[in-house]
Every structure is written in structure tokens, then in C-alpha cells.
């Protein structure tokens, strides 16, 4: 409530706060707030030593440097992965560009259609028909030329080495499907990384922060209905994101919900980045792991849901330390060499080791029409699965597949790349009741760049 003084020369505005009984609440500013040298009350952090007051108009990021926790070096060197470049992905990526994050990897399969223009901040009518990731990379490079943008039209389950995710400071998923979230959850659990998740509705949105290491994970929130809706098979690595992204396009969403949740996602990403890289991160940057923030736009209201870890939840399988094999590459290392290394590290005979894949791995096609067998190495994926016989025009030859690889495979002396494994992949080798994660670290330079 405010009153205006009536004196002509000196109009003064007085703001009075009243309590429930109508009594004035006297705020003792000196006692409650810290002022900076300009007399501005610091409502965020008390510790003025964290705050720098220089402001350079020629410095693009000058405004961020005034933020108590912002460390330019940390943000410039930060590596972020964002699964999805739809309406919400657009918002998140746009924010990361404005913030000037050092390196952003992102993936999506879809092309831009007219309906995308209503909700995607990065796309224009002239972009219709082009791949979302390509256009996004162009526009984002224009916004933030110093950021390294890495657009990927790849399935994170099969086509991106786990070593890529292992090198990310922040993992984010903005793909609206239960399958995709379960898949992302498994990847992050395997690598022991926290991750951020968001979903949007018509008026509502939800942002969640998960760290399956010692806390609840996304799968801890799944009830029977969600498990049923998660109809596609998933694996310790990930679920088919492509299908998930398509699903998202069919759900009622608004660019407004995307903007709000995309902003919170980027802010949490910025916090997580500092959390990971600061020696003594201020307590205000603490990540709300295990919490889901739900914004209901009808009333509107914001609700914080605290989740509990479910006993026996399968989403907490941490692979432990990764053995970096610097001589191993996808193209230069055979399956036998990988199994041999695993056997050596586990101290067991090579015949006792196996690499469980967590998905159906097709290695051969049998054509009932021309009665021929042919080599075909591919995951039995939902999208773009080619089962055509190379010898005739039969497009549906019968696939033979395995779920684990051992030294007895007839293709054991082929290089891993021939089997479709991506560069910088991490394999989990089991044997003698133990297991070890081995990375094709020889691919690091090529994949991650200098
Ligand atoms: Zn869980
Ligand atoms: Zn055939």
C-alpha cells in the first residue's frame, strides 16, 4: 500500500508493508540486508567478496559478471549436452547461447515443419524442410560465435559413444517421452552424473533434477501406468530418442511453457556447471536433486515435489571407474582385443568374459526367399531399421541377434566400428562375477576435438 505526500515541490512515495492485522511492518534494512558500495541491496548473496562491481559496456558478458556466482572461465569452458531441439530445446539452447557457454552438444532427428514455427524461437519460415539441429547450429553460432556448437542427428543409445557423455559437465534432456527419460537416466546412472529434465504441457511445466547416486532418480517416480506407457524395451545405455522426439510433437505444448521451463533449466545448468567446477561453491548454488518443480499455469501455482529413492529401482546402476584404454579405437580395435583386455583386467580367461549390450544386436540376416545368409550389423532399433536382403528384393529378411558378445562370435576379429559401435564408446565387460568399464579412449581427440 502506498501514500503520496501532497507537498508540491517534494513529492515523496512511501511504501508501507502491513501485517495481517493491518499494523505497519517496520523493516530495519541495516539489520536484514547488506548493501553494496552503490547502496544497492544484495538480495541474493550476503558475501560481498563474491561480487565484482566492474562494468564494461564493451564486454558482452558484463551483466553476468555482476552476478555473485558467475565465473566467466567456468562458463566459457563448460560442456553441456542437450537431448532434443524441439520447442523446449530451442529455449534451452537459446539461453545457453546468451550465457556464452563454451561447448554445447545437442541432438535431434526431426526436420522443421510449418507447425514448429509457432513454438520454436530459433526457426524461421525459410528454414522449413531442413534438419532442426543444422538450423539451430547456424542460428546459435550467429548468437554466440565463441561457443562450440555440436549438432548431432544421432541416436544417443547407439550412435554417440558414452565417452562423450562422460566428458560433459551438464547433462540435460528436453525430450518428452518416458522411454527417452528412462534411457537418459540409465546413461547418467552408469556414468555417475546428475541430470536435468523438463517437460511441458499446455499451461504447465515441470523441471526435475536427478542424481541417482545416493538419491532418488527419475525411475523412482514411475508408477505402474508409467511403466506400461514405457512400452519400448530399454537398455542400460538408452532408449530410442527418435521415437520419443516424434511423440513430443504430437503433444499439446505452448511456447510460453517452453520459455518458462527452458529458463529454469538453463539456470540450473549454470548452477550445476559452477557446482562441478568451483572449489568451494556457495551454498546458494546447491542443486535441488531429487526434487521436481511443477508449475501449474491455471491457478497459477508452483509446487515442489520431493521424491524418495525406491528400493530395488533399476535406475541406479553405476558402472564405477572407467578404464581408459588409450590405444583402443572403434576402427582400430577388434572385438577379440577388447574381450582380451577385459579378461586381463578382470584376471579371468577370455572364454569367461562377455559384453552385455542391453539391446538386441543383429549380426546376420537370413532371406527365406533366396535362401541366403548375409552379414548385417545393427541394433534392432525402431527407427531406420534396414532388413533388406542384399541378394534379392526381399525387404524383410529374418534377423539373427544377440544380447551379449563373447569370444565365440564368428565376427570376433572384426573391428568394433564394423559392428556399428561409435567412437569413444565405453563397454562393460563382465567375467568371473566382476565387471569393468573400458573406454575406447584412442578416439578422444577425434571425437572431442582439441
Ligand atoms: Zn531410482
Ligand atoms: Zn534374398
Describe the structure.
This protein is of the alpha/beta class and 450 residues long. The chain folds into 3 domains: 58 residues, no CATH class; 245 residues, NAD(P)-binding Rossmann-like Domain (Rossmann fold), CATH 3.40.50.720; 127 residues, no CATH class. It contains 12 helices and 20 strands. The strands form 6 sheets. An 8-stranded mixed β-sheet has the order 9-8-7-10-11-12-13-14, with helices on both faces. α7 links the parallel β10 and β11. It is globular.
Summarize the structure.
The chain has 450 residues and is of the alpha/beta class.
Uncertain stretches: 1-7, 232-239
The profile of the biggest β sheet is: 8 strands, mixed
Number of helices: 12
The third-level CATH topology of the largest domain is Rossmann fold
Taking all Cα atoms into account, the compactness measure Rg is: 26 Å
How many structural domains?
A: 3
Overall helicity:
25-40%
Number of strands: 20
CATH architectural label of the largest domain? 3-Layer(aba) Sandwich
Distance between the termini: 59 Å
Which class of secondary structure composition applies to the elements?
alpha/beta
Ligands bound, unique? zinc ion
